[in-house]
């Protein structure tokens, strides 16, 4: 296989156009076209750059007898998995699917009390002929159903463990071209990642503002209860944004098998993400336990606004401790 055919095959394997390859090589598209048409040969510096971009050896590019896309180091250590482009892509897909299930479970736990607060607000104003006892009964049923569904999503994550273990739990090396492809994917995804993290953090920060403003300027119990629903909804929106986007970015980094240099905003968002994964289900359990123990559903709702403020405080404490240990 001649050099021209190898360039074509490697370029198409990564899904790049001639224009994209030319941009990475800092040459014109016509130059790439001539290389692939065997009308000209890249100079030595361009050959070296091609080997780096395609993640292959210069020896592989220059020797026509090298027909197979073999790894640079054929003598792999025993127990080292060889990850192809297809396997790496499947890993990312499974990682995202797993996180989507976790996200659904966490969001359902966070939102499980929203129907209860809504029914209690309706009971406060006697709308829909809603009584206090009926509101509590319907609210309890809603909480139990949503929590049960949320737990089922947590259980479903077990089906993805085998698919992701090859990269997350075992040593591996990448096939030729995989590193370059995923480095490019992560680079293109980074602006979206940073933008959505900023939006999620904004949702967490401002989630308590509506409830705080209503508590200061209004003493109507039904409005306060509805603002608790708004608080939980904004937190759920933030989690829906931050968990999937972080999972995709982390999956790219795991495939690249390297430590990523992150901004302070990114690091803070990841710590908030890890905290949220167990904090909100735990808060839901505390709320249910306290409410069933005392049967004071008109009082125990205070757990949610207090929990939201505590969540922000814990994130701040994590930042403080991180600075002290840095």
Automatic annotation (TrEMBL):
<keyword id="KW-0812">Transmembrane</keyword>
<feature type="transmembrane region" description="Helical">
    <location>
        <begin position="197"/>
        <end position="217"/>
    </location>
</feature>
<feature type="transmembrane region" description="Helical">
    <location>
        <begin position="302"/>
        <end position="321"/>
    </location>
</feature>
<dbReference type="InterPro" id="IPR010982">
    <property type="entry name" value="Lambda_DNA-bd_dom_sf"/>
</dbReference>
<feature type="transmembrane region" description="Helical">
    <location>
        <begin position="278"/>
        <end position="296"/>
    </location>
</feature>
<protein>
    <submittedName>
        <fullName>Helix-turn-helix domain-containing protein</fullName>
    </submittedName>
</protein>
<keyword id="KW-0238">DNA-binding</keyword>
<keyword id="KW-0472">Membrane</keyword>
<keyword id="KW-1133">Transmembrane helix</keyword>
<dbReference type="GO" id="GO:0003677">
    <property type="term" value="F:DNA binding"/>
</dbReference>
<dbReference type="InterPro" id="IPR001387">
    <property type="entry name" value="Cro/C1-type_HTH"/>
</dbReference>
<feature type="transmembrane region" description="Helical">
    <location>
        <begin position="135"/>
        <end position="155"/>
    </location>
</feature>
<feature type="domain" description="HTH cro/C1-type">
    <location>
        <begin position="7"/>
        <end position="61"/>
    </location>
</feature>
<dbReference type="Pfam" id="PF01381">
    <property type="entry name" value="HTH_3"/>
</dbReference>
<feature type="transmembrane region" description="Helical">
    <location>
        <begin position="223"/>
        <end position="245"/>
    </location>
</feature>
<feature type="transmembrane region" description="Helical">
    <location>
        <begin position="105"/>
        <end position="123"/>
    </location>
</feature>
């Amino acid at each position: 296989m001649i050099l021209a055919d190898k360039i074509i095959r490697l370029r198409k394997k990564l899904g790049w156009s001639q224009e994209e390859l030319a941009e990475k090589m800092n040459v014109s598209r016509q130059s790439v076209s001539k290389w692939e048409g065997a009308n000209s040969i890249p100079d030595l510096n361009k050959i070296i750059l091609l080997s780096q971009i395609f993640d292959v050896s210069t020896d592989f590019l220059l020797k026509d007898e090298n027909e197979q896309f073999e790894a640079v180091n054929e003598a792999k250590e025993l127990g080292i998995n060889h990850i192809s482009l297809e396997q790496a892509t499947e890993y990312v897909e499974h990682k995202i699917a797993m996180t989507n299930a976790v996200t659904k479970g966490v969001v359902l736990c966070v939102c499980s009390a929203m129907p209860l607060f809504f029914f209690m607000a309706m009971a406060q104003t006697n709308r829909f002929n809603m009584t206090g006892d009926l509101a509590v009964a319907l609210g309890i049923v809603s909480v139990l159903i949503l929590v049960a569904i949320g737990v089922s999503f947590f259980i479903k994550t077990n089906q993805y463990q085998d698919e992701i273990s090859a990269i997350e739990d075992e040593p591996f090396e990448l096939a030729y071209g995989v590193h370059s492809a995923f480095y490019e994917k992560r680079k293109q995804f980074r602006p979206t990642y940073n933008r959505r993290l900023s939006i999620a953090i904004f949702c967490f920060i401002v989630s308590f503002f509506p409830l705080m403003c209503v508590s200061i300027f209004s003493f109507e119990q039904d409005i306060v209860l509805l603002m608790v629903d708004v608080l939980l909804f904004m937190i759920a929106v933030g989690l829906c944004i931050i968990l999937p986007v972080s999972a995709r970015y982390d999956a790219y980094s795991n495939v690249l098998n390297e430590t990523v240099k992150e901004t302070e905003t990114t690091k803070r968002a990841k710590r908030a993400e890890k905290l949220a994964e167990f904090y909100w289900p735990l808060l839901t359990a505390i709320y249910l336990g306290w409410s069933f123990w005392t049967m004071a559903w008109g009082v125990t709702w205070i757990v949610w606004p207090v929990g939201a403020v505590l969540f922000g405080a814990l994130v701040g404490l994590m930042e403080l401790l991180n600075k002290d240990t840095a």
